[in-house]
Protein 1
Amino acid sequence: MTVPAALNSAVGTLYVVATPIGNLDDIGARALKVLREVALIAAEDTRHSMRLLQHFGISTPLAACHEHNERDEGGRFLSRLQSGDDVALISDAGTPLISDPGYHLVRQARAAGVAVVPVPGPCALIAALSAAGLPSDRFIFEGFLPAKAVARRTRLELVKEEARTLIFYEAPHRILECLEDLEAVFGGDRQAVLARELTKTFETLKGLPLAELRAWVAADSNQQRGECVVLVAGWQAPDGEAAVSAEALRVLDLLLAEMPLKRAAALAAEITGVRKNLLYQVALERQKNA
Ligand code: SAM
């Protein structure tokens, strides 16, 4: 195993440590070792993380590093690192920086020549994707959608024709609104998965077309509780006839009755503005099925 050497051995290392998203057994052995051995743990919420540390019998001092103080207090952690202390960065759950604080501290540390070492582990979006059964070779993570309806729909419009699997984080009190907007923008037939309470007692992974998923969540208030990830299958370009308007098909059919297929497709493309190759394919399909 290659461990990146500190850029300057007199300087400490900043470890970015993932912690469980529910089930405490998911903590990694290396995470525990690092949390035990560093001089200081920078935590999103010290009271919350105190419970985690107590559970594992770790007594390393904690200091707050959250959204509101991260930029200003970064200097404090940086001077500890520069004086040779190792520091671990954790968030309330999962991987720091993933819809969680830490970005500014990591940037500042790297800019100052401090080695930043990831200690990987739980992350809700990866856990959800790994079990959702949607294409996982290419995906995009959109984080939390805007809370306001207009901004949320505008954001969704931007990714409506995204071919990769889409992953969203959502708060339980907005899950229904979120599914309603996903259905309105992406269409009710698009396949989606709700991954709720992962690694916890009421873990649920439900995969349905968006219209059915929205109805299922609306009908059961239990599904509107807890933490959730929403995954939506990427957009698939309609092929063949489905991609061509009824008017373009009418023009193509009229021309096919009068001239050879290749000429009909070329002329129909000029008249309708639809791609010649697409009309050629459609013409072939129509002749085959005639
Ligand atoms: N840093 C975390 C990670 O690595 O996944 C994410 C933190 S973000 C503030 C919290 C959001 O992550 C929740 O609102 C939910 O969308 C998702 N999340 C966290 N834990 C989850 C769980 N156990 N099951 C489902 N979603 C979860």
Note: Residues 21-22, 91, 93-95, 98-100, 123-125, 169-171, 195-200, 227-229 surround S-adenosylmethionine (CB under 6 Å).
Protein 2
Amino acid sequence: MMKHSSMRLDKFLVEMGIGSRSQVKEMAKKGRIRVNGAAASDTSMKISPQQDMVEADGRPVAYAAVEYYMLNKPAGVVSATEDSRYPVVTDLIETAVRRDLFPVGRLDLDTEGLLLLTNDGDLAHRLLSPRRHVDKVYEVVYEGIFPKDGARRFEEGIILEDGTRTLPAHWKQEGDRRGLLTIQEGKFHQVKRMMEVLGCRVTYLKRLSMGSLKLDAALKPGDYRPLTSEELEALKKEGAGKEQET
Ligand code: URA
């Protein structure tokens, strides 16, 4: 939302988590909503969230501009805001003030790990831009024999089954059938497809970091917490960096 922009009172109240559109309408009819001290019976009125004083049941409704959460996504939950079959990641963030959070990028249904949820569209756009080359680190458990020249091939960029070439990626073997893969892009099922080219099948995948943002080891699958100001500052700096060719 732009500074000092105006918006409908009902939209504002819904976004701030006061209730659904019909609930806030009902509250307003009963005189429970006030704008600058006066009862607002018509929720279609325009307000300026930064300038007007809105109260619900006598309590000021604070304008929460943007929210940022780190989630350890569990398997079985979809990286989306709605799904007809599975629970979605935004349902897991119970403390969110705003109703317009969305996941920054996607992890597969069976992938676990770091997922950023926010309503800051600009930051999300910058972090996801294929031209930013934000490093993502994944823990990979696989079946099959990882070839001796696998790390070199990843470093050089490999051709996926659809003919596209991946940007240089870094592989670090971490024991038997387990490694850490750092990629700079986010193609559909990218890690699984890269491993597939080498003849390996991913059996477990977890994202550990995205740029400077590292998954908090204290978060169990399904747990989340707001980003600290340091984490947010570092991410914003990253997003503000120069775009690169390709
Ligand atoms: N690569 C994949 O194959 N799946 C994910 O969820 C993320 C990266």
Note: The mean pLDDT is 92.
